[in-house]
Specification:
The complex is a heterodimer of chains A (368) and B (364).
Chain A (H helix, E strand, L loop, with lengths): L7 H7 L3 E6 L15 H10 L37 H9 L4 E6 L12 H20 L5 E6 L5 H11 L5 E7 L12 H9 L4 E4 L17 H21 L2 H4 L5 E4 L6 H15 L10 H8 E4 L10 H10 L4 E2 L22 H16 L4
Parallel strand pairs in A: 1-2, 2-3, 3-4, 4-5, 5-6, 6-7, 7-8
Helix pairs in contact in A: 5-6
Chain B lengths: L2 H6 L7 E6 L6 H4 L5 H9 L33 H10 L3 E6 L11 H18 L7 E5 L6 H12 L4 E7 L12 H10 L3 E4 L17 H21 L2 H4 L5 E4 L6 H15 L10 H8 E4 L11 H9 L5 E2 L21 H15 L9
Helix pairs in contact in B: 5-6, 6-7
The chains are: A alpha/beta (368), B alpha/beta (364).
Chain lengths: 368, 364
């Protein structure tokens, strides 16, 4: 079926329900979390501030493409940062595209990856309370993510258990640049608790691992940081497979956010070949890596790869599996994807509907 | 030659080149004759016996195909035996030796310079001089870029050296200006830069730290290549050195299209940051970058390879390799099945000759 813009069929396609798996609510600063912190941690924050595994007090080692990394039209008229005004978020995103719901992924300064495990835990709790009070209460279509102090598996597990069963939370959220590879044992309590709570684990790119952001050392440019998230995610998934994470916690559902998707087939082929050759190194890995990846990993679209020949994107979506790709807009960031235009018509209306809505509904349905 | 071996010799068209062959790492004892007295004394006194990296544990399956191990199950080889398996058996005329001795792992730059120099001389005397079909890559001491340039200049006088060989990762991404004198030297001599799987291990092999398994380490090599390509393009290496070719060796092929789509999309939005990148990364990479064919990561589905080749979009980028003695394939299945014979000819003959101009010279 060919869809022409403006035809009734096209209108129907546009008016279908959409689920957005990557929306960024925004703290104007860590001070927004003060009302949700104990006196001890308020004093600590005031005196010592946030310290990450990188040098700047405020700002990014790889400066962004735009102020607050955001679309110019997303700054609230009444002040505050893009993503901080629920009304604007409704009018520019949820209402404009008639969204069924969206998943909030707060990125900074939420306490995730902050040095000091207990401080990180206190900040993450505050961020979770902040999401509930300022976003989910006035707009229930905005589902919260459980931010966890992921560098300490036990404290992260405690935070997940605290909110287990609360259907206002749709997933556990991690940033991708963890201090060590996420398949390793120190992080297992996170996946144990997520499995117990039947929550997907969303992993959004960025964060500060303390390692050079590439295995070749520190690159110079933001474009390299952005590009490098894909290889980094590939290493993360290889770790999960070969450490036996999916064997240990078979209920694990990973949602990769902003890491791209087209690389997944080549990764799976490579891991399968190596597993076939050296499976005696990892006897706890019972099946070909591609089977674990196919079963346990979902990929969010934005920023969707753009081959010159759109047929190539269809190849890749076929290889990944049509039920494992979910739509994400990345609102309000500069590289926002518009659900009306981000998916090329070549993929056909059925797959488009699956990506824009059905796959995420199945993934988050139990909590959404 | 048995009947079976004669049949196998038809694998490649006449004049083919095997662009990635490994002669065994030398022991320090083998390198001693090529070092000054002071280094001979120091290395003996300090008990340094070998420099093998953790990338290829000797007994690991990947490190050597079972039928290519020596009678004791080890990795030793002779030029004759290597040539029989990596050239004659496949019907290749020439092969390029890439030594993986871990000289890049040194932190002492003086020691690195001395041992690297010995390594290149050992390759010349013990391998190139002993088989006419062999060519080799120059290993430069990256710890001291001035010395690395001098070493390239010294070795390049012997025209059987056809490439400058770098490990997949050193101290900084390869686009950084610290490496540009080396690229200038390579371009001056008409030598491509080869980047080969296996890190210098000055950083963890992933951007998320050290993996616990060899499988992950080896899988990560194709991830490091993505980093290096992003760096080489973004820093403007190919704008500065328009004749330079870079060969990505033993690091897979299948990842390339998806990498270029992501990188190319960001370039559209972020090109203000690197204005010297004045055309799309895909175009730049197609013009300047080549990849060797082993390993070639593919699923069982034979329908994938034609789609993947269409995505790569160029018949000039692939260079034939067997990756001897690493265990990438069994029997004579050295190429992915289903390749058109005309494409095999490009991969095994035309592309190598275009990439390595010195291969067209006759040496007797």
């Amino acid at each position: 079926m060919t869809i022409h813009a403006g035809s009734p069929t096209a209108e129907a396609a546009v008016s279908q329900k959409i689920i957005d798996c990557d929306i960024h609510p925004k703290l104007s600063s860590a001070n927004d979390l003060m009302p949700f912190l104990s006196q001890r941690w308020q004093d600590h924050l005031k005196t010592y501030g946030l310290r990450y595994r990188m040098g700047y007090q405020d700002g990014n080692p790889y400066p962004k493409a735009a102020p607050a990394s955001s679309r110019r039209d997303t700054w609230p008229a009444g002040g505050g940062l893009p993503g901080s005004d629920v009304g604007l978020l409704q009018s520019q995103l949820l209402d404009l595209y008639d969204m069924e719901f969206g998943i909030m992924n707060p990125l900074w300064p939420t306490g995730q990856g902050v040095l000091g495990d207990e401080f990180s835990a206190a900040l993450c709790r505050a961020t979770n309370l902040w999401q509930l009070d300022l976003y989910n209460a006035p707009e229930p279509r905005l589902k919260c993510s459980i931010c966890v102090p992921y560098e300490n598996g036990e404290l992260a597990r405690d935070e997940i258990r605290h909110y287990a069963g609360d259907r206002r939370f749709a997933q556990v959220l991690l940033l991708s640049r963890t201090a060590e590879l996420l398949g390793q044992r120190r992080y297992w309590p996170i996946f144990e608790a997520a499995q117990e709570a039947r929550l997907p684990v969303g992993i959004h790119v960025f964060g500060y691992s303390g390692q050079a952001i590439s295995a070749a050392g520190w690159p110079s440019y933001y474009i390299e940081e952005m590009t490098e998230h894909a290889p980094s995610a590939q290493a993360m998934l290889a770790s999960m497979v070969f450490e036996g994470l999916f064997e240990r916690y078979p209920g694990t559902r990973i949602v990769l956010l902003e890491a791209g998707l087209a690389w997944m087939p080549a990764l799976a082929w490579r891991l399968d070949r190596l597993w076939a050759r050296m499976r005696d190194e990892v006897p706890h890995v019972k099946r070909p890596p591609s089977e674990y990846l196919r079963q346990h990993v979902w990929l969010a679209t934005q920023p969707m790869e753009e081959p010159d020949n759109k047929r190539h994107l269809v190849d890749v979506l076929d290889w990944i599996g049509h039920d494992r790709v979910v739509f994400s807009s990345d609102y309000p960031h500069w590289d926002f994807d518009d659900p009306r235009h981000a998916l090329p018509p070549h993929i056909g209306p059925e797959l488009k509907r699956a990506i824009l809505h059905d796959n995420a509904a199945a993934l988050y349905g139990a909590t959404g | 030659m048995t009947v079976l071996e004669q049949a196998a010799a038809a694998v490649l068209p006449a004049g083919s080149v095997n662009c990635d062959i490994h002669h065994p790492n030398p022991t320090m004892r083998e390198l001693m004759p090529f070092m000054d007295d002071v280094w001979r004394d120091l290395i003996a006194a300090r008990g340094i016996t070998q420099l093998d990296s953790i990338a290829y544990p000797g007994n690991a399956p990947l490190s050597c195909r079972p039928d290519w191990r020596d009678p004791a199950g080890g990795l030793s080889a002779t030029p004759e035996r290597l040539a029989a398996e990596a050239l004659d058996r496949l019907g290749a005329r020439l092969g390029i030796l890439n030594n993986l001795c871990g000289v890049h792992m040194f932190y002492d730059s003086y020691m690195a310079v001395a041992v690297t120099r010995a390594l290149n001389d050992w390759t010349r005397v013990e391998w190139l001089d002993r088989h006419d079909g062999l060519r080799a890559s120059i290993v430069p001491p990256l710890q001291d870029i001035g010395a690395a340039v001098a070493e390239v200049d010294r070795c390049a006088a012997d025209r059987r050296f056809v490439q400058v060989l770098l490990p997949s990762a050193a101290h900084q991404p390869y686009g950084h200006r610290v490496y540009w004198p080396l690229y200038r030297a390579a371009a001056r001599h008409g030598l491509p830069i080869g980047i080969h799987a296996g890190s210098a291990y000055h950083h963890p092999v992933t951007s998320l730290g050290w993996p616990n398994t060899m499988i992950e380490d080896y899988a990560a090599q194709s991830q490091i290549m993505q980093t290096q390509l992003a760096s080489l393009v973004s820093e403007g290496v190919f704008a500065e050195f328009p004749s330079l070719k870079v060969v990505l060796i033993e690091s897979g092929v299948s990842w390339l299209p998806a990498f270029l789509w992501r990188f190319g999309k960001f370039w559209k939005g972020l090109r203000f940051e690197t204005p010297w990148v004045d055309r799309s990364p895909t175009e730049i990479v197609r013009d300047h970058v080549r990849l060797t064919t082993q390993p070639f990561d593919l699923p069982d589905d034979p329908g994938v390879l034609p789609r993947l080749l269409d995505q790569i979009g160029s018949d000039e980028m692939l260079l034939f390799s067997s990756d001897y003695p690493h265990w990438q394939f069994d029997g004579d299945a050295v190429l992915p099945s289903g390749l058109d014979p005309a494409l095999v000819r490009r991969i095994a003959v035309d592309n190598p000759l275009a990439t390595y101009p010195r291969l067209m010279e006759r040496h007797s």
